[in-house]
């Protein structure tokens, strides 16, 4: 079958080490937002002075996430790779800490878990989910353990299959406890897209107010049918939203917020915000 490779491997921003079995571990370097710099360093006398005896404050301190992932996969296993949407969503989380601090955060289709690991620095609890194919759940667990020093919240790793919405009572209660839902680059197949939007519909049909952030990259192709360049998966996603949404507010987030991770923030990246109208649902 045809294999696909994430565009981040064409960028020269990071170093990787190949592992036995075809995976790699890549160093994802990011700049600390000011609130992540431990103020206790000052109290502990760890701040230094320069040659003029002025306080030497490192304004560009960097952190590192070591993420295991596949380099190239078939289409049904693209969750084993890292895509730009995950980095865009991670940047948004770091840029808007007030939206995510002390929240219960659910990530759908989390792939290797990078965005969930970033969210864990602010959240009360992170629920990291994906379908358990190709060893994705075990891969997420390894990445959480490798980056344990960066994780500040409680976390759970569960399987959620967009094509099977029959959840156990315990799993549904856990998923419905989230007030913030994240998803990055889950729009790549029409059947999966339909299942993803149906999953959102189930999660958002509740009296609890929820906000969803979806990051994706429009992928354009030339079609003979349209005699034009289109982004068919993105357009199919919009059609699914119109088909399944109930009392949703959908808008686009400007992506000019600060960039903390090193990647090419191309113009085709999109960040959407969806909110349910809990009041309308309450009286339905």
Structural features, described:
- With 284 residues, the protein is an alpha/beta fold.
- It is built from nine helices and 16 strands.
- The chain has a seven-stranded mixed beta sheet with strand order 10-9-8-11-12-16-15, with helices on both faces. Strands 2-3-6 form a three-stranded antiparallel beta sheet.
- Helix 7 packs parallel to helix 8.
- The longest helix is centred in the last third of the chain and has 15 residues.
- The chain is globular, with a radius of gyration of 20 Å.
- The termini are far apart.
- About 7% of the residues have low confidence.
CATH homology-level superfamily: Vaccinia Virus protein VP39
Number of helical elements = 9
Low-confidence stretches: 39-58
Largest sheet: 7 strands, mixed
The name CATH uses for the topology is Rossmann fold
So, CATH architecture?
Answer: 3-Layer(aba) Sandwich
Q: Which class best fits the helix and strand makeup?
A: alpha/beta
Portion in strands: 25-35%
Give the total of domains. Answer: 1
Protein name: Methyltransferase-like protein
Pfam families: Methyltransf_16 (PF10294)
Keywords: Methyltransferase, Transferase
GO molecular function, one term: protein methyltransferase activity
